[in-house]
Amino acid sequence: MAQSSSAAKRNTQNTRRRLRNRMYKSRVKSLRKQLETDIQGKKTDSARDRFRELESLLDSGVNKGILHRNAVARTKSRLHHRLNGIQ
User: pTM of the entire structure?
Assistant: First the structure.
């Protein structure tokens, strides 16, 4: 239990941020799995649309400080190579 009002506020802020970050990362993981399914199924149009959506989501995650920029760059690069492989 927090001993001061500032500590209580900090706990509230941390909880709010943790939940927001968890929701965001879950959304990224779900979209990535859908993209992987499209790539394996060789659904080019659907995969391209999902990749654009995922790319936007990853970039905004970097800007918000939720995801690390190098990890996002690596992820986008790997997915882009896989996407180009189904053509």
Answer: 0.85
In a domain, 52, yes or no: yes
Q: What does the alpha-carbon distance between residue 74 and residue 78 come to, in Å, rounded to a whole number?
A: 6
Per-position DSSP letters for 26-79, written without gaps between them:
HHHHHHHHHHHHHHHTT-HHHHHHHHHHHHHHHHHHHHHTSS-HHHHHHHHHHH
Contacts of 48 (CB under 8 A, 6+ apart): 83
Instruction: Residue 66: give the domain boundaries.
Output: 26-85
**12-69 confidence digits (pLDDT tens):** 999 999 999 999 999 999 999 999 999 999 999 999 999 999 999 999 999 999 999 9
Tokens representing residue 37 in the block: 């399914």
Residue 19: inside a domain: no
